[in-house]
Amino acid sequence: MAFGNKIREYKEELLSDLRELIKIESVSSQHPDKCVEALQWMLKKAEDFGLIAKNIDNKAGHAQLGEGGKLCATLTHLDVVPASSNWDTDPFDLTLKDGRLLGRGVADDKGSALITLYCLRILKECGIEGKNTLRAIFGTDEEVGMTDVAAYFAKEDMPDMSFTPDAEYGICRAEKGILQLELTCNRGNAAVLTELKGGTVVNAVADSAYAVINCSENDDHQLMRLADAKNSEFDFMYTPDGMLIKCSGKAAHACEADKGNNAILQLIDLLASNFSLSALGNLCSFISTRLRLETDGTSLGMKMRDSQSGALTVCTSTIDINETTERATLDIRYPVTFGGKELIKRVKKAADVENIEVNVLSHAKPLYLDDTKPVIGILKDAYSEIMGEQPEMYATGGGTYARKLGGNGVAFGPVFSGDPSNLHTDNEGLDEENFMNHAEICLEAMYRMYIAD
């Protein structure tokens, strides 16, 4: 019997603890204090399990088993993205519904974080004698910049081999570059548009947006007719400040922008179908002509792909147009064989036409590992031991902690093909059996790292 099967004996206790962890609303973009609370909860749990626990400046920490040999580690995060009001269940409670475990963080990434802690516990309680040092490292702001791991590795050594269970199965050996940009300009002569807002975070497709416009009754009626033919849901309401138009889209992770329906782009497309671009202002003009309804960067002159990691994607994430300023953010995921600096030049050249300033919010360079890395072999063997087949090697547009692991780590699980995890959107969750299969694979992989020569 594979050693990983042992975690099945801990299932009920594991799910009980996961429910408690999910109740901590550790949304890093809104409640950094709750992220600290989640970290402290996790490290206290590690101590209760008889493990060594260490807190690094309330930014990150680890639970440890063994000492000496190679430093082996898993890296997960305890922060989550915001939850909308469109969930079918309470996002901050673990719910079993129709065979699925639902809750914010089940898949990204509290479920995996707790599993790695339980793996250390099981190895200790089973009396396994390891040759190496094994750590489960936990961060608190992966969703908003990964400053947590920078703080951690400023004081702790980089692992010799590691993985982060924060993606899909099989083994993710390539991660696209991530370029997040801010577009700003002074408010121009946008006579029609009073206000436009949409989106909440840079790394997700906006599922809602609204605009307030000052126009004639004829324009109002024309917009309503045009909205009927658009690929989104629009609501119109008369207010003292003008016509309020709300657009409802579909959220998705920015790395899979084509799977969402961007409410910002849909709303601007509706407005631009009736009004001149000058009446909407510089930022709307740029979005209408250079971003359109696209997710592949065609109109920006950036459509590209490579065999190692696939195609470039562009997500218009947030927008805020008010009385004085116009601001929007873009999330660009680019192939591993291309350079981010050239992309910045292309966006700036296009934005200059509209007198829009482009600033870099963050830039994570691509990651690519070949098959000769020892950790690749260990993860392949662990997966095949549990699942009875070899894992696929693949690339992602997502940004995981793997790119912070010094070239000695990859992303590995927890999402299986065909299991709609709904990362960064409503009703996040995993199939219950898949969740436990993932737990078995994690334990098998950590066991093999712990005893490896």
| Largest sheet: number of strands, sense, barrel closure | 9 strands, mixed
- Indicate the low-confidence ranges by residue numbers: none
How much β-strand is present in the residues? 25-35%
- Which class do the helix and strand fractions yield? alpha+beta
Radius of gyration: 23 Å
β-strand number: 24
Helical content stands at 25-40%
C-alpha geometry:
elongated
Distance between the termini: 22 Å
Provide structural commentary.
The chain is α+β, with helices and mostly antiparallel strands and 453 residues long. 30% of the residues lie in helices and 27% in strands. The protein has eleven helices and 24 strands. The strands form five sheets. Strands 1, 2, 3, 6, 7, 9, 20, 21 and 22 form a nine-stranded mixed beta sheet that branches. An eight-stranded antiparallel beta sheet has the order 13-14-12-11-17-18-10-19. A three-stranded antiparallel beta sheet has the order 4-5-24. A hairpin with a 3-residue loop joins strand 17 and strand 18. Helix 1 runs antiparallel to helix 3 (110-125). It is elongated and about 75 Å long.
